[in-house]
Amino acid sequence: MRKQILTILRQNQGQLVSGEDLSRQFNISRTAIAKHIKALREAGYIIEASPKRGYKLIAAPDIANAAETTTYLPPDAPWLITYLNEVDSTNKQLRLAAENSAPPYSVIIAETQTAGQGRLDRGWYSPPGCSLYLSLLLKPPFAPQQAPHMTLLTAVAVQQALSQLGCDSRIKWPNDVLTPQHRKLCGIKCELRADMDNIKWLIIGFGINIKNNFFPSPLDEVASSLLLETGNKYSTPQVAAACLTSFNKNYQLYLEQGFAPIRDQWLKFAVNIDKQVVIKDSSRSISGIARGIDNYGCLLLEVDGQIQTIAAGDMLIEGDSI
Q1: Which residue in 65, 118, 143, 292 could disulfide with 124, CB within 3.0 to 4.6 Å?
Q2: CATH architecture observed for domain 66-268
Q3: What beta strand segments (E) does 88-130 contain?
Q4: What is the pLDDT of residues 70-83, one digit of tens each?
Q5: Is the CB of residue 240 less than 8 Å from the CB of residue 65?
Q6: Cis bond leading into 74, ω under 30°?
Q7: Distances from the Cα of 105 to the Cαs of 241, 242, 321, in angstroms?
Q8: What are the tens digits of pLDDT across the range 231-247?
């Protein structure tokens, strides 16, 4: 009911909507309408009331709740959005939901995380009011061996969304979206539960720095935000919706045509191709020239004239500190 009232106010934003008309339309009392308006105000919506004339929506909060994010999504978007003010980790909360039979295309967005996690369970800087913290749930029809494609697909989707919003960006293997100067805008983390043949669920989490105007040390040397890069103040629900829309477009393309078109887009915006890089993992450090990715999403690394296939690791591009 509250969402429906908000939709009508939004459709008539800047104009008065009669409380009596709302009461009649929803078959509830004027008092009930007033209670819903009060709840919307408490949620951050600025709604002006004129006695005997009605209500006027003046402004909406810049939070990526379902109501705000949905306004930027296509009408047929499949996403089921849950907004939480504070969580330990959006991935963790969605993992719990997945284990309790949450449907595919469920999304959790949080204002802040107290224990945000990046790749390899590293901490993720998650201050309130600055960034997008989002996890989405899939129950895909493909084999577990294809799951690594989803990290690369997400990077492509985010890069495309940021480009549409006017922020130039690049992709870094295996899971980052960077500025052209190689400062980090977005990190991606995927996890799944599967048996030998089937994926039970797959969760993709990503964080995007949107309104950050500074970063604490040592992040100040390696991170950036949409605000710092463009000078523009982006709406968090707008960024969320752009990324979800871009992801769904690429995911449907993947289901129809496989990894090849995603790989082509990834290579087009990859920052590391034909660059001298160092790949580090828990057991070794190897230097070579990044030559691309194979059909499994593994890095093709040229070492002493020979191509080696690297399935996982951290990449350091020559001259960078990330």
Answers
A1: 118
A2: 2-Layer Sandwich (3.30)
A3: 106-113
A4: 989 998 999 999 99
A5: no
A6: no
A7: 13, 15, 36
A8: 999 999 999 999 999 99
